[in-house]
Amino acid sequence: MACSQQYEYRWADGVQIKKPIEVSAPKYVEYLMDWIEAQLDDESIFPQKLGSPFPPNFKEVVKTIFKRLFRVYAHIYHSHFQKIVSLKEEAHLNTCFKHFILFTCEFGLIDKKELAPLQELIESIIAPY
């Protein structure tokens, strides 16, 4: 999956696919959503029982989830934004992305270098805050 000629994202989950592989954007999203679902369902990562502790690596798991979700936004903006505009749906995408970015910035969930593909857009979002 790519978001421009400069950025290409390959998939690896570290379990079934250990070495990153080239996949299409739809396949990347499919792998990602399945992987996120598995993380959320894993009670050793996201405890369901009240009072159960979160694991020491909890923030790192969440950071990986958000980093990979950002890649989907980057792909959408670089490869499909004109289609979204033609459907007059850009306000919805922009609102979702704004909430996503403000949340990730507030809690430091994505390293700055990972945000490079959409840096200008991100700066326009966070500048007023």
UniProtKB/TrEMBL annotation:
Protein name as it appears in the record: MOB kinase activator-like 1B isoform X2
Taxonomic classification: Eukaryota, Viridiplantae, Streptophyta, Embryophyta, Tracheophyta
Residues that span the membrane, as ranges: none
Gene3D superfamilies named among the record's database cross-references: MOB kinase activator
Organism whose genome encodes this protein: Durio zibethinus
Domain of life, per lineage: Eukaryota
